[in-house]
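Model the whole thing, not chain by chain.
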Amino acid sequence: MSNISNTHERAGGNLTAQALREGLFAGLVALGLFVLFVGLETTQNIRNELVLNQRWGLLAIFVIVAAVGRFLSVAYLRPWAAARKAAAAAKPVEGEESFFKRNFSKIAIVALIFYPPIMVMLFGVQGSLKWVDNFGIQILIYVMLAWGLNIVVGLAGLLDLGYVAFYAVGAYSYALLSQQFGFSFWILLPLAGILAAFWGMILGFPVLRLKGDYLAIVTLAFGEIIRLVLINWTEVTRGTFGVSGIPKASVFGIWSFDVSAPNNFAKAFDLPMSSAYYKIFLFYLILALALLTAYVTIRLRRMPIGRAWEALREDEIACRSLGINTVTTKLTAFSIGAMFGGFAGSFFAVRQGFVSPESFVFLESAIILAIVVLGGMGSLVGIAVAAAVMVGGTELLREMTFLKQIFGPDFTPELYRMLIFGLAMVTVMVWKPRGFVGSREPTAFLRERKAVSGSFTKEGHG
Amino acid sequence: MEYFVQQLVNGLTLGSIYGLIAIGYTMVYGIIGMINFAHGDIFMLGGFAALIVFLVLTSVFVGLPVVLLLLVMIAAAMLTASLWNWTIEKMAYRPLRGSFRLAPLITAIGMSIALSNFIQVTQGPRNKPIPPLVSSVYNVFGISISLKQLIIMLLTVILLTTFWYIVNKTSLGRAQRATEQDRKMAALLGIDVDRTISVTFIMGASLAAVAGTMYLMYYGVTVFTDGFIPGVKAFTAAVLGGIGSLPGAVLGGLLIGLIESLWSAYFTIDYKDVATFSILAIVLIFKPSGILGRPEVEKV
């Protein structure tokens, strides 16, 4: 008995000693990492020369946080996590899923339909604007883009780092054609999709032979080429100034949202003038477009072409041996994915009223791809959750004005938005490498449909 | 003709910088099969470390010889960038080793976003200009070669020779090549795979840091977004040369540098990046695994 407690104590002592050692080491590493960048700040003086500004206090905070954090994680967090994992392994797996979990997507769709009226009720017509526009529409655009990219990356297994190019094609198609020829949104929406799909084919042809990371770099290059052409072809695109004054969409031409128009929406219903109605209309528009993307994806997965995509992802050689034409399979994946990007792009143009190449940088492609992967490639619900967490989370940072009271009035949370976004990408990926939803519903099955763990699906070579 | 040779010199200088960065991409890719998107930002970080060390040295010791100044800057940049890359590998990539292919790609992109924004937050978003370090220009047969260009090319040659020696002649290099060929088998034969991978990241970061210092010296200015474009160009260079191949990375870097400066000299400067990327696409159509890359053999 005494023996056991003895070894236990020694283990405890060892653990503390180890934690102390690792904490100290982490502090040293943090010192090395931050001494130049945090300890010293380069600022311009009046004569525009660079001078150094010393911030040793801030550096000390960084080092202490790293050391203490490491110490606590080794001494307490890790044993606790290990104990919890053991406890979870011992517990039997529950067979029945809760009602909420089973009907998650239906509940979510109903909640989204009632989202704008509830926000109007809670915050008033003007107050709802922020919640519908910044959160609702912003998140839904990314959901739609990620679902579109999911067709290429999640289903067909082709790594596309230049998806934002199709978004740009859609946005500029609407912006330029509506300004030059005065076409309405409802004509240009399908047209923008078709044009983007066409560009998807153009990209698809040269990259048919490429695989893996070669494919990734060429798609990245393609995205950059489109952006650089938008910047430099100033006669048509007006370069970095962008295209402004893009006409608004109307409710199928029945009601307009232009203030001067006789069939103005607010006038027709005797409502007070507000831009919120247009935003609420846009919310339903993007919701419908996103749901269309999801519906098409779900239906396509059951059709021969969708099965061919998934077969291509699993094994290209087997796919070819079974007589599937990989050329058309890849091209359709690229063009259908691009088409939804084009739809989203024309929606983006109509929502902003302004497009410029600034909106279509590589970072956007990276964010969309990150959402697809964090959601658990191929899972529509997971992708929607990932978009809400990542985009909504960073939007939420703009709202955190209470932080100003803690860190002083100079503190601007927006500055830290992308820093936190990047770190969140890393943290979530390390915590859940298979994404938020790691299981798959197979479309082809024998007798009984069973969820398959994401670890059994491949991610493709392309 | 003189104009052409002049552009050739400019292109080779730029290409040397791209080549140094590209080696980091290609080595990491070769050893763990992952595109290290944060590598361009490590390059930027190295440039910033050199900048800050430069400011410290010039304010503390006035009138330090330029050679010493440059050497200390390079050393500090190498150390800082190596430490960063080592930490990043440990925290963001190692937990995902053996996971599926896209997971480390996403953490690398996340790290790239985080790093550039970290510099933006801590050092401010504005351009950081420094006074010219070396300004002598030599005139050889009507072609002007600046001392800066000579230093860059000379340093590149020295680093590449050292590097070639390490990879091909030392036991560390042997361990790296073994890990690259078959990680599991290398581990079975007693190679510390984790350590080898860490060392690879450190080596890549050091070369990128030298490139960052050279870039700062050459252009005299740096900014927190500077990691992206040279990073993408270097990555393009690595792919063009055949990713995983070290001579390929250098060749690709030089090619990209040449294409860029010759295109800017004879056509419009606006479309030089379009030209670079288009040539990449065209080369890959005809040689899908790069110029010196080995085609991947698929086993069924």
